[in-house]
Design a protein that fits this description.
The structure holds 2 protein chains of 2 kinds. Chain A is 24% helix and 35% strand. By secondary structure, chain A is of the alpha+beta class. Chain A has 2 domains: 224 residues, P-loop containing nucleotide triphosphate hydrolases (Rossmann fold, 3-Layer(aba) Sandwich); 109 residues, Nucleic acid-binding proteins (OB fold (Dihydrolipoamide Acetyltransferase, E2P)), CATH 2.40.50. Chain A is elongated, with a radius of gyration of 25 Å. By secondary structure, chain B is an all-alpha fold. Chain B has 13 helices and no strands. Classes of the chains: A alpha+beta, B mainly alpha. The interface between A and B is medium-sized, with 29 and 17 residues.
Chain lengths: 350, 273
């Protein structure tokens, strides 16, 4: 199975929901579509499934153009954000639906349907729930039913819209790991939509970062974090501070902030052209030291434990900066000296 | 000593139930009781003879079968109207939405006269239909037509909120699972709407059975042919046969009750299945 999207455009009235999207997914890949709400990721997913139609561009699966193929003939599994389970059907009937609606010639006999549905329910660890109605089970269980229902048609491609969006943190974590394993074991090709960068980076083989209807960067999680291709990606991932700066003679000076400038050696990634720039500094890229009263360039607003270090919020000339520091180094209200150890810089948008 | 009372998170039960019972009692129960007692003057045998007169049986048959037939036609039509109102956005939708309720609001006699004028053999619709050999006014068909007119809003208004509540995603999910449009309708949409459809059918039928004003003009009221039971009650009243009128009323009440009970049982069976 391979998926190729070329120049996909979708307009909603005057607004461009998708602005010439290109995307190529290989068989067996687990791909995340990551972006803020309104970036077009759900629209893209719906078009792949045949639930929405392009104004321009093509979607190809295994080299076949899908534009004339209706949703029901695409064999693409879709898990909806709110599951869209059939309320009046039991869990068993929900999962069996895709088999029962097949034309008589290709419909498996009743015993075969039952066998396959039960095997899927067992695989999803919800075998005991087959007689329940969707309203009688928990959110995490509904998620598994929706997944089993989509997998029952043996889809060529599995699409998941915000698969963990409606679940609480604990369930979300467990289900995430489980979905990752399921994907590998069943040899699926999957695309999922999320606005949660942690989720995307943890789960996906490759992540397509979307902004305003375009794919800004499509790369592995490591490459996205290490070599963001655009200011948007650098700012969206990793909780980086976004600071105005100016680049001249290879030296990056922060504009309007009491921070020491950075030499060329401290700049990561490709250097932008000289002139106005945007600098991104991640929380672990700051150097912090306590300062005497009346000295230093920043003041600690708050400090709370986060794993092996303290998560510190600082006031830098009115701007809030988030940084990591060793436990016990800084107290709230204390003045301190703040310095960027390294940064990524991009040409400032004009 | 006062017993410590458990605090109710939803206070006011006693008061609201009291008012409900008083109101229902005065408005519904007492008149019904009178309806029950009045025919007793005839004695059991007299009552039986009174309601099994051929003319009474014919009128009861027309009222009930006409109402059921009209509601059976209203069911798909009302569903269609509700579907159009909920699922599509088009200019004039609000106007159409308001028009659905007109049969509620229109004085029934006005509706009856309008229908009669339209469908009379020399009316706008009656004349071409008569040329085709279909007679509507002054026949049981006309009776059913008027009953359908008053019943339609009941079906539309009971189905509409349930349909609005039905997520489009369920149909989309059916499509991605390989279902045709027809299968999605039959297996996903219709079962979800069934309870509402049945309730709408019951209300439309109940209204049609008791309908008087809009039916009597178009019915022509030929005894044994196009005379509805409510009219027969009025006929008996005009002959000062109060007990006989009440007897027909009681028969209608009993039949209506049985019908609604049957529909509600069907609904319960459906939910369990």
């Amino acid at each position: 199975m391979s998926l190729a999207v070329r120049g996909l455009v979708r307009r909603f009235g005057p607004a461009l929901a998708l602005d010439s999207v290109d995307l190529a997914v290989r068989g067996g890949e687990f791909v995340a579509l990551l972006g803020p709400s309104g970036s077009g990721k759900t629209t893209l997913l719906r078009m792949l499934a045949g639930l929405d139609f392009a104004d321009a561009g093509t979607v190809e699966i295994d080299g076949h153009d899908m534009s004339a193929v209706p949703a029901r003939a695409r064999r693409i599994g879709f898990v909806f954000q709110h599951y869209a389970l059939f309320r009046h059907m039991s869990v068993f009937e929900n999962v069996a639906f895709g088999l029962r609606v097949r034309p008589r010639a290709s419909r498996p006999p009743e015993a075969e349907i039952a066998r396959r549905v039960r095997a899927l329910l067992e695989r999803m660890q919800i075998g005991a729930l087959e007689k329940r109605l969707p309203e009688q089970i928990s959110g995490g269980q509904r998620q598994r039913v929706a997944l089993a229902r989509a997998l029952a048609i043996e889809p060529r491609l599995l699409l998941l819209d915000e698969p963990f969006g409606a679940l609480d943190a604990e369930v979300r974590k467990g289900l995430r790991r489980w979905l990752r394993e399921l994907h590998a074991e069943m040899g699926l090709t999957s695309l999922f939509v999320t606005h949660d960068q942690e989720e995307a980076l943890e789960l996906a083989d490759r992540v397509a970062v979307m902004q305003a209807g375009r794919v800004v960067q499509f790369d592995t999680p490591l490459a996205l974090v290490e070599q963001p291709a655009a200011a948007f990606v650098a700012g969206f991932l990793g909780g980086a501070a976004r600071l105005p700066a100016h680049l001249s003679g290879g030296v990056l000076a922060f504009s309007g902030l009491p921070l020491p400038p950075l030499s060329a050696a401290a700049l990561r990634g490709a250097a932008p052209p000289e002139g106005a720039a945007l600098a991104f500094v991640r929380p672990h890229e700051w150097a912090l030291s306590p300062a005497a009263e009346g000295e230093g360039n920043a003041r600690v607003r708050s400090s709370r434990p986060a794993g092996g270090h303290a998560h510190v919020e600082l006031d830098l000339a009115g701007q809030v900066i988030e940084a990591e520091a060793p436990h016990g180094l800084l107290r709230p209200g204390q003045p301190c000296r703040l310095e960027a150890r390294q940064a990524r810089a991009f040409a400032a948008p004009s | 000593m006062k017993r410590p009372r458990r605090r109710d998170p939803l206070p006011g039960f006693g008061l609201s139930l009291g008012i409900t019972l008083l109101w229902l009692g005065g408005l519904v129960l007492v008149p019904l009781l009178a309806l029950l007692l009045r025919p007793l003057e005839l004695g059991p045998l007299g009552f039986w003879h009174s309601v099994t007169e051929p003319r009474v049986l014919a009128s009861l048959r027309l009222s009930f079968l006409g109402a059921l037939a009209a509601s059976a036609v209203n069911l798909p039509l009302g569903l269609l109207v509700a579907w159009v109102l909920v699922r599509y956005r088009f200019p004039g939708r609000r106007l159409l939405d308001g028009m659905v309720d007109l049969p509620f609001a229109l004085p029934t006699a006005v509706a009856g006269l309008a229908l009669t004028a339209l469908y009379a053999p020399n009316g706008w619709l009656g004349a071409p239909l008569a040329a085709l050999g279909v007679k509507v006014a002054y026949t049981p068909l006309g009776v059913a037509l008027a009953m359908g007119f008053v019943g339609l809003p009941f079906v539309v208004r009971t189905v509409e909120p349930v349909l609005r509540d039905l997520p489009l995603e369920a149909e989309e999910a059916a499509a991605t699972l390989g279902a045709t449009r027809w299968q999605a309708w039959w297996r996903v949409v219709l079962p979800a709407l069934a309870p509402a459809l049945l309730a709408g059918f019951a209300m439309a039928s109940a209204r049609a059975i008791g309908e008087y004003g809009s039916v009597i003009f178009i019915a022509g009221n030929t005894p044994m042919w196009s005379e509805i039971a409510p009219l027969l009650i009025v006929v008996r009243l005009e002959q000062f046969d109060y007990a006989g009128a009440a007897a027909v009323g009681l028969a209608m009440l009993a039949l209506s009750f049985l019908m609604l009970l049957g529909l509600s049982l069907m609904n319960r069976l459906w939910r369990r299945a």
